[in-house]
Amino acid sequence: MIIWRRLFSEFTRMSDIRLTDIGANLTDPMFNGVYHGKQVHPGDLDAVLQRAFDTGVDKIIVTGGNLTDCQEALKLAKTNDRLYSTVGCHPTRCLEFEQTEGTTAEEYFQNLLSVCQAHARSKVIAIGECGLDYDRLHFCPKEIQKKYFEKQLELSAITGLPLFLHCRAAFGDFIDILKRNKDKINGGVVHSFDGSKDEAMAAIEFGLYIGLNGCSLKTENNLEVVKAIPADKILLETDAPWCEIRPTHASSKFVTTQFPPAKKKEKWESGCSVKSRNEPRNLLHVLEVVAGVKGMDVLQLAQQVFVNTCNLFKL
Ligand SMILES: [Zn+2]
User: Fold this and answer.
1) pLDDT (tens digit, 9 = 90+) per residue, 156-194?
2) How far does residue 166's CA lie from ligand 1's centre (Å)?
3) Residues 124, 167: contact at Cβ < 8 Å?
4) Structural domains of the chain, ranges and CATH numbers in brackets
5) What's the pTM value of the predicted model, to 2 decimals?
């Protein structure tokens, strides 16, 4: 009886949790069952969303990565009250500003702006993802990345929306560009943060939040950084279908909730999750890990992150 009561009180406690996945790439073909251009199983995005909503993930921000992707993300966001989207161009795709046929860089920018303005605040709630990625210069050279990262900050100035930022191995240039455009910026989050403690503190000092997902929690070193980030500066995301927490990661020992086993994509069944394809439901694991690392109660952290999310995105 006592055990049952304890289980029940734990259940009602957990059902108080309201999470926002601030970054999910739900326009990725994997959610249509397509992997490397090949249809492997039926699309199952509705089931993926339902699993998330049933696990306390109350809202999801669908990440936009370039002009067409942002149009698709917005279209998806309009289908459900709990979905929102971002508008921007990912650093690895910034050559599109100059190399989209029949479009000048200024026209590409204006097209991004009109997607923002059509539904600013009601559906489009951030500019991004934008930033710098020096780990993948083969997709887009440094100078182009810097030029169009800075250009996209104008989208924030015009719309008043906060930034959804991406930074990989480029923190020096990244913070320099932000600092010299401080007047254009309306807050923001460095998503998928995997930098050092000093970088986290510099970002926070500049007024940014830190977005954490499975990629931010891979190593003991990552966890040490997370320990140092104040809870009132943390936002949570999955970056689904990427950045899942794996059993080999330092984070995995802090995961407490077990979900039904996932199936390989080739053995997909209705209602199952897919092995190696991260999904927004798993945001609960990110919460559990961050709470565990910081020695915080899960519910207390969830409430703080809820406040942070509302503050930044005005949800
Ligand atoms: Zn990113």
Assistant:
1) 999 999 999 999 999 999 999 999 999 999 999 999 999
2) 5
3) no
4) 18-313 (3.20.20.140)
5) 0.94
